[in-house]
Write a structure and sequence with these properties.
Chain lengths: 379, 335
Amino acid sequence: MIAPERSQEFHNAAHVERRARKIDDPVQRLKYLRAAAAITEAPKQRTWAVPAMAFSIVVLVLTMRSDAHLRAKPEIRRVTPTIRMAAPEVPNVWRVEAGKDFEVYSNGLRIDNQLAVSSRPRSYQLVPVEEGGKRLAGALVTTPAGIVFHTTESHQVPFEAPEQRNLQRITRETLLFVRNKQAYHFVIDRFGRVHRIVAESDAANHAGNSIWADAKSLYLELNQSFLGIAFEASMQADQAPINEAQIHSGKVLTEMLRSKYRIPAENCVTHAQVSVNPGNMRIGWHADWGKDFPFQQMGLPENYELPLPSLFLLGFDYDPVYINATGTGIWKALALAEERTRDAAGAKGIALADYQARLRRRYRDEITTLRYRSSDEEN
Amino acid sequence: MKSEGTKGGPSAVGLDVGTSRIVAARQVDQTIKYDIQLNAFVSIPYSKMTENVLKKEGVPFSVEGSDIIVHGNESERFADLLKKETRRTMARGVLNSDEPDSVKLIQAITTSLAGRAEKGQKLCYTVPAAPLGAEQDLTYHDVTLRDMLSGLGYEAKSINEGLAVVYAELESTNYTGIGISCGGGLCNVCFAYLSVPIVSFSIAKAGDFIDASAASVMGERANRVRILKEQSFYLNGNFDDKFKQVVSVYYDDMMQSLVNALRNAFTGARNMPRLSRPIPLILSGGTAMPKGFRDRFAKIMVESEFPVEISEIRLAADPLTATAKGALVAALSDM
């Protein structure tokens, strides 16, 4: 309704307003606006291609602290800058012991291998993040580039001693289902036990239509390129999705995988951040871990705030359902991605809608190439 | 209101800590429940019989030395019966430095309204903006309230009163517009743009100013003026009744001061977003409740040549609870 013509602080206000209007719930709308306001005041960051920048996004957080200190002279309320910290260094983790059905690692991680299965070998081609960037002809990668965190969304009973038998039964059934579907590489059950399902060297069916990018490469259909870790949990439950034991196991497992494959922190993300629906060109086909994922307790930076490559590299959009299923961290990421898209369109002198259409064409071209290569390999 | 706060967690609380009243807002199912108490007290000489009567009547009180302190809604009735002035825990929007037990009494009133917190329960409480022309330091007021509420177990944060009005009433404009809370000690103003406060200030002319000024002219107790004002006063500019005429004069004075301050603030504001459409203005608070207040205020605004185009001037749906509702919305949005 009220759109400034041009203002340094609110130059994307019309867009933010349109988005906000799609949110019916007044509290959710306010959350969105406050998150967007925080991003609007963040300094622009124009060079996504510089690796260090990915860890130094300056996010200005609009806090709910008192504004009682606004003085008689009217003034713009300033927000407090917080520096996005780089992730703590990954400790060197090595395998200490391996038995027939288990492995033990130097950081205390224990993996149960009883349900491990093979799938199809991992193999994918690196796509340069820049459109038209030079590809290394024929170079196929067989090591994982990242991790996607999931919830199993399986049946949940209260995590209490009287439910012991039910808890174990449900865990067993969930693990067998996951194994049958070759759905994830690892499942962390409600007792914090780590189960290997699909071999690390193979692809698992965990991410389907999905997109991520780091400083150099664009990743499509992350089944091939990313490992999938699922927590036996549900985002629909009334309590926190995972418990302390699961958080600890998630941390040591993430440490081991990052140490083993040199996975950058920015490539450790949740399913809600990567999932897309090419049918309507919107993100968030799956929205597990759209909020509340304890990145910091996993030894990772707050990756929710990384702008979504599906938006600014490939022209995807989002809807109110996605807003409702996600939290303020991702909302900041959406705002950053939109700002980046606008900047890129402006730099190329193209109308925003035309630029987004061009990005969507790129997605279709890339996905066609990827699928052509896959079918070629199968033949 | 659809949001239900944190899954399975305790419900959030919005607390309007005003000079005249303390209002608690809490979400129950899909509606908001309000509880209101006067932010006032009266002291009565201690006697065992009085104590027993108060206990029997269920009147909230505490014993302080040789006095019985009756606080909250009942204080007004007792003050009227005893022909005494109620005493205030707050003056001009902040803690009353003349009343050393003010924090203790606010805590007692808050406890009777909101109770002690459950683990992790969030509470957002209102604080005024700095008054124009009296740039007092509000840090003490804010921090003292926060410490008091933390002592009750709440995760407490403060919000400007005017901004709370915006959060309560201006969802339809994406929380863009002017919120004004006309309370007892202060009139608080906030202009917010897309939920972000741009201009905030207060003026020290509000309900208490009207009551005290009218009382001095009429030789009446200010407390008595307030009761009469709230029971029967309306603004239409034509009175035979002296009481109404006097109160009307001071209402006019307050509104003129408020509109002048608004015009000056907007005229002098730096970095104001350029607005392509008019913005709404919401009036709330007990002092804005008399019939005719909105019309009189709108007339003064029109005459003031206000620099920003206003789309509408309206009263909040419930002027007495709008600020507490906005504080609740802020608390929920912080979950």
